[in-house]
Design goal:
The protein contains 16 helices and 21 strands. A hairpin with a 5-residue loop joins strand 9 and strand 10. Helix 2 runs antiparallel to helix 4, helix 8 crosses helix 16 and helix 12 runs antiparallel to helix 14.
Amino acid sequence: MYGFLYKAATLLAGLSILHIASGDGLNFRAHSPAQAAIKQKLGRQLSRQAAIYFPTDSQYTNLTERWSAYTQGNITIVVEPKTTQDVAVTVKLANDYHLPFLAVNGGHGTSSFLNTFQHGVSINLRNFNQVQFSKDGKSALIGGGANTQEVINGLGVHGKVTATTNGGCTGQVGPGLGGGFGRYMGYFGLILDNIIDMTVVLANGQVKHVSSTSNADLYWGMKGAGMNFGIVTEANFKIYDYPTSHWVYAEFTYNDTEHQLDAHFEAINKINANGSQPKELGEVYTVMQINPEYSKTDPVMVVQFNFAGTLEQAQPWLDIFIDLHPVAWWKKDSLLPTEIQAAAGQDLDSFICKPGTTWRLFPVGLKEYNITANRQVYNLFKAFMGEHPEFSSSVVQFENYAQEGLRAVDPASTAYPHRGDNILVSMAPVYPPSKALDVIAADFANQLRAVWRAGDAPGREMTAYLNYANGDESIEAIYGYESWRLERLRGLKRKYDPQNRFRFYNPIIR
């Protein structure tokens, strides 16, 4: 009913890129001698369950299609490894042939750096989709190819949960390398805050066990900047008993923005004052979008409400949004933790999990909403949508997650730099594939960014969430402004990836 493309934000609360590495690259023709030689050499070293595909193979198109048409890149070979050793062998062979390599799960990354990946090897990790429950019930071994829905359902059988993204088809491990936002963030922090240890294939093909006691320096860097250092084939995660056995989910639509917009964001500022949003109110997610059911010219605001608890417990918070007099709203209560994704339209069967169109993100982190700035953003978005009907499915996103779990972690203990941000906003252009529209989208998105930045707290530097970052942001905006943090990351690059092989997803070295 509400044009559910807007749910892309929660789907993208963490992306499925596990690493990318660079090389000089080779051009292959169909059945070329170089192709045949690689297939023969690699085939002899891979396990029996592994597979190799080239552009002439029927499976190639499905294996190389990405969620966003904007980041297709150019793939010469697809390898489906079955074991960590298969991944290591593939990396070593790619190095021998000076080919870039890219490890992929769901392929949801939208960074512009992906477009510089040319004539390379795609390492498809979907075979690594295990969710193995530990004997003591305190952890689970999750494969680098497992998606969020597999994790939620796999742990749910045991009445357990961990921090995940909200979108069913995005990965678990990949988003965790850059952060990992989701409904349980108020309870358990970011996805990366729950990684106990991981198996990592380095740029030279070496396999390392990485934890707080083994390769501890790399453990710090992988948790917040992991795309720069290695391929994670599996990781142990902390798991927990369900904090609640039920969820309440609601959606509100507001079409009288002249009177409702300011009041809505004032209410959100009160709820989320200095990161104090209660952990039970896992997420309040707002979008501006065109919905022809109400108007073809004036964007509406749609609000997703996610509450961990009973309807009685949720009611005082629901009343805040009901009192703003939505033109339409609905709710579902007594949802099991394994049912909340489907209720929100974020499960594997949802339309937002289907590839084929262009999706991009241009994020900004904020302390609180500047109401005047949000009003200006609305007016600019309305004018833009009227002038450019090709962007009719685009949305402006305002994400508010509970912060308690995130704030409980020492900011210096991981490479993730943005624990002081309370809000994540972004322009999300959605449009048919087109180079000309790419330019229009970026120009307008950065216009909105400038408005948000002008309305931010005085003296605050721009911040951009790594998993969302478009690629035009500064290194400091993505990885932090502290000199010690940046030098530590650069030192890790010198130690673990001196040739800068991992440089195709918002890299620390450019």
